[in-house]
Amino acid sequence: MREINLIVIHCSATRADRDVSAQDINAAHKVRGFTSWGYHYYIRKNGKVEPMRNLDEPGAHARGYNAKSIGICYEGGLDTNGKPADTRTLSQQIALHTLVSKLLKQFPGSKVVGHRDLSPDNNYNGIVDPFERVKECPCYNVLEEVWG
User: Fold this and answer.
1) pLDDT tens column, 88-113
2) Selecting from 3.40.80.10, 3.40.50.2000, 3.40.50.300, 3.20.20.190, what CATH number does the domain 6-144 have?
3) In terms of C-beta density within 10 A (0-12 exposed, 13-18 middle, 19 or more buried), how is residue 104 classed?
4) How sure is the predictor about 135, in pLDDT bands with cuts at 50, 70 and 90?
5) What DSSP string describes 60-124?
6) Residue 33, SS3?
7) Does the pLDDT at position 126 exceed 90?
8) Residue 19, φ and ψ in degrees, nearest 5
């Protein structure tokens, strides 16, 4: 098993009124040149957790961090007008917390972040300010969540 020290939360950046399956994500990632889906898990709006990449295999979800991370993506992230928003359903929130809690037990000491939190801290103040984010994914503040 590879060393894991980071769990990265993503959104699919799709509108809340659209359904996007794991197979849709796989197809999109292949178009981008990936061999297969970049995430390790995908959480549907109904809370179903779909395994994607094997945990032994590095993901393709957060450039520069893939070697020691696990990528989790939830379906959604944009409101019905296409604007970034926390569109997680209650079922997704429960499934996400359950999955992350399990992974933290399996990989103790790992840090949980949103993809946007991996943006460069250009002003070197120790935090990634909103204006420094490369993207909004996962469209909510993962660092404010209580995990485990």
Assistant:
1) 999 999 999 999 999 999 999 999 99
2) 3.40.80.10
3) middle
4) confident
5) SSSTTTGGGEEEEEES-EE-TTS-B-----HHHHHHHHHHHHHHHHHSTT-EEEEGGGGS--TT-
6) coil
7) no
8) -100, 135
